[in-house]
């Protein structure tokens, strides 16, 4: 870290080292050994010779088409990328344009480093908002929580059509959940399970006036309680859900036809959209792709809210569900015919258009949002809303925008990115002889989602485009039969797209959003009063007369044992504790370090337990001491020159 950086953070290099030394808790000489990489002269020289990160970053805004993706040592990226982890179940934070991975945020997965899925704090979040039926399923299966998830679509909360830096949301297609990540601490803070659906796929937050609703698509048709019969697929339906982005409760659901795929919201706060394949209601590939046209389902938010007010809904498993099926001809939905099994659904940043990507059709269908009032009023027909349908190439999946009137569509089968002009496509649809296609660029290979910097906000800046490619084949050293995906960075600041970087990624980033760094301001340490900590821990500590920040105490109550300790480099305040075999033990560790980046851990050997404890955080874990013997616990985050010594023993006396 440069001295300027330290100064900005209110610390001098000297005080930074000084604090680390002081936190040596009386161990002589510990401070002299210092923190790795902080006290050596070479490092200082390198830091001093580099310009301040802000100055260096400014050099990136070069001539159009000539911007550099190079981010040198000590320089900072200009954008955060919120990248999905697909079937890995996590969300990832990357820096753009460097494409460096900054962080992995565990969400629907179990995580060995942080203890997500094992600590009391994470289990509270994972299991707080699940259905009673799932709770029983987990119990009967001997599971503490769902061990996996399939996170496809990360999107940030909006205020007035642009990012407000509060939250990120994402779906879990595997176990029908929607999560929220708090951007101030970059931790998952809510997960809600959606009842009555199968496969929560498309997910988008409301853009205006703010989020607001988070829209989630149920992909697979199922026999909805009170509507469908188990033995008759012709009576099965998909369900569209609006989650309240503030409370993370379910606001309402709409019963629909076909399989909902991807979705988006408008820029006006009036409508939301979902592509919809399988209008055939088939259960096989052949069946589901036989119709020439499927749909874009349009949801009328005001009409839905009105319907709820009037009581025009059924309560299905505790959720208000309105009937928006095609044959119901309801005020809530319209079904716009779109060729053929459409996939991606993207609103243009000028707020005017919705792009529906044809997948099995070589076209992208363009809807004019301003015509929707007339459609719902019955003044025009469904297809009158379509203002362009350019033929772009084979397998269009998703579209992104540069804010200068151009769209960028991934062609899965052609392995290309196609740049096209929206106005030209509209003119061509009216019959003018004009080719909307500006350029086709090979990508490697089979692209799915793409995303531009700030491209899903009114502040789309047209600097960078990332293509998330499903296959990497020969682009990297052979990693064995399972290959990485390939995320490619494309410069779109000039007239021509320019491929500048290949980045291998692990299974499977479907989607990302690219956010100006200034929109996100994470804190450096935890606030001791943060409600993210397990409320039960704080209450229990109070009952036990323990101040967590100073604790060194073992409390026994029958066969329940509570161990309270602090972590200060390089020691735990409880160096040893004793329990009886069969006791239920809860360990609370509070990290009382006040300086940035001094994370401790608690790994209990032979018990499958590890947890992260960030500066000023408390983490806790509960387990049964079934295994007798001496079990060391140690800090798994390299925190100090005496980090190896930061350990203790749990002694489990045999029965
Ligand atoms: S889907 Cu994966 S490439 Cu889940 Cu957004 Cu289109
Ligand atoms: Cu504390 Cu390593």
Automatic annotation (TrEMBL):
The gene is nosZ. Residues 42-74 are annotated as: Disordered. Pathway: Nitrogen metabolism; nitrate reduction (denitrification); dinitrogen from nitrate: step 4/4. It is found in: Cell outer membrane; Periplasm. Nitrous-oxide reductase is part of a bacterial respiratory system which is activated under anaerobic conditions in the presence of nitrate or nitrous oxide. It comes from Neisseria subflava. GO terms for cellular component: cell outer membrane; periplasmic space. Homodimer. It catalyses: N2 + 2 Fe(III)-[cytochrome c] + H2O = nitrous oxide + 2 Fe(II)-[cytochrome c] + 2 H(+). In the C-terminal section; belongs to the cytochrome c oxidase subunit 2 family. Belongs to the NosZ family. Residues 520-655 form the Cytochrome oxidase subunit II copper A binding domain. The keyword Repressor does not apply. Its main location: membrane. GO terms for molecular function: calcium ion binding; copper ion binding; cytochrome-c oxidase activity; nitrous-oxide reductase activity. This is Nitrous-oxide reductase. SUPFAM superfamilies: Cupredoxins, Nitrous oxide reductase, N-terminal domain. Its cofactor is Cu cation; Ca(2+). Residues 46-65 have a biased composition (Low complexity). Pfam families: nos_propeller, nos_propeller_2. Its EC number is 1.7.2.4. PANTHER family: CYTOCHROME C OXIDASE SUBUNIT II, NITROUS-OXIDE REDUCTASE. InterPro entries: CcO_II-like_C, Cupredoxin, N2O_reductase_N, N2OR_C, NO_Rdtase, Nos_propeller, NOS_propeller_2, NosZ/Cyto_c_oxidase_sub2. It is a lipid-anchor. Keywords: Calcium, Copper, Metal-binding, Oxidoreductase, Periplasm, Signal.
């Amino acid at each position: 870290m440069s001295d300027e950086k330290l100064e900005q953070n209110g610390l001098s290099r000297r005080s930074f080292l000084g604090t680390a030394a002081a936190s040596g808790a009386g161990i002589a000489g510990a401070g002299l050994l210092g923190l790795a990489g902080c006290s050596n002269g070479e490092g200082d020289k390198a830091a001093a010779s580099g310009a301040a990160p802000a100055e260096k970053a400014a050099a990136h805004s070069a001539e159009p088409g000539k911007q550099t993706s190079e981010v040198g040592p000590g320089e900072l990226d200009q954008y955060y990328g919120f990248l999905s982890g697909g079937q890995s179940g996590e969300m990832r934070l990357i820096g753009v344009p460097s494409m460096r991975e900054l962080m992995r945020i565990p969400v629907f997965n179990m995580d060995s480093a942080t203890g997500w899925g094992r600590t009391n704090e994470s289990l509270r979040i994972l299991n707080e908002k699940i259905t009673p039926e799932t709770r029983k399923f987990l119990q009967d299966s001997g599971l503490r929580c769902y061990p996996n998830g399939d996170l496809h679509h990360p999107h940030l909360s909006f205020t007035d059509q642009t990012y407000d830096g509060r939250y990120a949301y994402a779906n879990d297609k595997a176990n029908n959940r929607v999560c929220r990540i708090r951007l101030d601490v970059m931790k998952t803070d809510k997960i809600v399970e959606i009842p009555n659906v199968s496969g929560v796929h498309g997910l988008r937050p409301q853009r205006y006036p703010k989020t607001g609703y988070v829209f989630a698509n149920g992909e697979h048709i199922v026999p909805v309680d009170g509507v469908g019969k188990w033995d008759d697929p012709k009576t099965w339906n998909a369900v569209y859900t609006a989650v309240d982005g503030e409370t993370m409760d379910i606001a309402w659901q709409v019963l629909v036809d076909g399989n909902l795929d991807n979705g988006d919201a408008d820029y006006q706060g009036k409508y939301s959209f979902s592509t919809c394949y399988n209008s055939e209601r088939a259960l096989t590939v052949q069946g589901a792709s036989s119709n020439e046209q499927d749909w874009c389902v349009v949801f009328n938010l005001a009409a839905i809210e009105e319907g709820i007010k009037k009581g025009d809904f059924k309560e299905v498993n505790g959720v208000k569900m309105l009937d928006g099926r095609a044959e119901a001809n309801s005020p809530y939905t319209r079904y716009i015919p779109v060729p053929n099994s459409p996939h991606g659904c993207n609103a243009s940043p000028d707020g005017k258009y919705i792009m529906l990507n044809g997948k099995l059709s070589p076209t992208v269908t363009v809807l004019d949002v301003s015509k929707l009032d007339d459609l719902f009023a019955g003044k025009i027909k469904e297809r009158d809303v379509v203002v362009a349908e350019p033929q772009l190439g084979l397998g269009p999946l998703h579209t992104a925008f540069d804010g200068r009137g151009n769209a960028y569509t991934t062609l899965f089968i052609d392995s290309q990115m196609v740049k096209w002009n929206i106005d030209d496509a509209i003119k061509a649809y009216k019959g003018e002889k004009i080719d909307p296609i500006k350029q086709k660029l090979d990508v490697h290979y089979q692209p799915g989602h793409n995303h531009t910097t700030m491209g899903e906000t009114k502040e789309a800046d047209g600097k960078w485009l990332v293509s998330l490619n499903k296959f990497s084949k020969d682009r990297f050293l052979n990693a064995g039969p399972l290959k990485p995906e390939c995320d490619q960075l494309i410069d779109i600041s000039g007239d021509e797209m320019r491929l500048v970087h290949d980045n291998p990624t692990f299974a499977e980033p479907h989607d990302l959003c690219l956010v100006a760094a200034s929109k996100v301001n994470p804190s450096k340490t935890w606030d001791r009063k943060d409600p993210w900590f397990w409320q039960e821990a704080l209450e229990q500590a109070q009952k036990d007369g323990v101040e967590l920040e100073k604790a060194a105490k073992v409390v026994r109550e029958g066969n329940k044992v509570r161990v309270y300790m602090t972590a200060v480099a390089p020691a735990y305040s409880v160096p040893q504790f004793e329990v009886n075999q069969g006791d239920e033990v809860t360990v609370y560790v509070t990290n009382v370090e006040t300086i940035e980046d001094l994370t401790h851990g608690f790994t209990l050997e032979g018990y499958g337990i590890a947890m992260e404890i960030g500066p000023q955080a408390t983490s806790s874990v509960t387990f049964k001491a079934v295994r007798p013997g001496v079990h060391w616990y140690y800090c798994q985050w390299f925190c100090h020159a005496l980090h190896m010594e930061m350990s203790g023993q749990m002694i489990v006396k045999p029965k």
